[in-house]
Amino acid sequence: MCVSCGCGPDQVVISGAHSEHRHPAHDHDHPHDHPNDHGHGHDHHHGTPAEARMVEIERGILAKNDAYAARNRTRLNAGGIVSLNLLAGPGAGKTTLLVETLRALGGRVPAAVIEGDQQTANDAERIRATGTPAVQINTGKGCHLDAHLVGHALDELPLPPGGVLFIENVGNLVCPAAFDLGEDMRVTLLSVTEGEDKPLKYPDIFETADLVLLTKTDLLPYLDVDVDAIERNIARINPVASILHVCAKGPNGLAGWLDWLGEVRRRRLDRLAADSESRAQALRAAAEALP
């Protein structure tokens, strides 16, 4: 499992939202609390001492990550920010989807992006070209983002209240699934060019998804692929995930995705407004009770 495979934070570099500077992510630490009782549910392990030790290492790494994720989630929720963790294999179209989504939003919705790649700032530069602030995390030997790195990136980003934060994870169908980043929703992308059996081969990345986007659907006339079989395989792994077809090239190819995004944001802002009104009513009631 990736949490104990040896990929680590050495060589990690984070660039600022407007590419004005770069610094190693491990130069400083955040004052995050690390609860000792937050694990991932392996109560007992019956195996060799080495296997038992491996389980303990995995539980410790994930518990530490979850503490950072909880901190990120509290920070984002306080501002009414909808955060999405985008997961996919290389070439599924994550960055193209983001670029076209940001263009379609046209600045009407405040947005920011965290980009994860092992090397280069190419994707962050594409995002910044739309006028959207983006922080690039280069993970070096690491094959996924984690909540601690995302916490560092949040320090570099302007996060206007009520906005949307897109986190484009490292292109990988395995390791990113294990790490909560503090996001509200997980969106897994699968290109129709990747074939019908990817959900069965890489179940974790689909099992944890709230939404699955089938990308590059404009290529379907040229492919020998069974889209119904793809959807059936996704449903075998995750029967509750929504599935949408998207095409970044075309006038209406993102309509369903944009509608879904808008609804998620409306629900978040409605909850934030209701909570604010409840607090205001409590304060008014307390003021009226004063002698």
Describe the structure.
The chain is an alpha/beta fold and 291 residues long. The protein has helices at 49-78, 94-105, 122-128, 147-156, 198-201, 203-207, 227-237, 255-288, and strands at residues 13-15, 22-24, 82-87, 111-117, 134-138, 164-168, 185-191, 211-215, 242-245. A 9-stranded mixed beta sheet has the order 2-1-5-4-6-3-7-8-9, with helices on both faces. The relative contact order is 0.15. The model is unreliable at 26-45 (pLDDT under 50).
SSE topology sketch:
Blueprint: E1 13-15, E2 22-24, H1 49-78, E3 82-87, H2 94-105, E4 111-117, H3 122-128, E5 134-138, H4 147-156, E6 164-168, E7 185-191, H5 198-201, H6 203-207, E8 211-215, H7 227-237, E9 242-245, H8 255-288
Fill in the keyword field for this structure:
single chain, 291 residues, alpha/beta, nine-stranded mixed beta sheet, 8 helices, 39% helix
- Number of H/I helices: 8
Shape: globular
Order of SSEs: EEHEHEHEHEEHHEHEH
Structural class: alpha/beta
Number of strands: 9
**Measured on Cα atoms, how large is the radius of gyration?**
20 Å
Summarize the amount of helix as a percent range.
25-40%
- Unreliable residue stretches: 26-45
Spatially, the strands of the biggest sheet line up as: 2-1-5-4-6-3-7-8-9
Approximately how much beta-strand content do the residues carry? 15-25%
> Termini distance?
63 Å
Main beta sheet, described?
Answer: 9 strands, mixed
Overall pLDDT level: 87
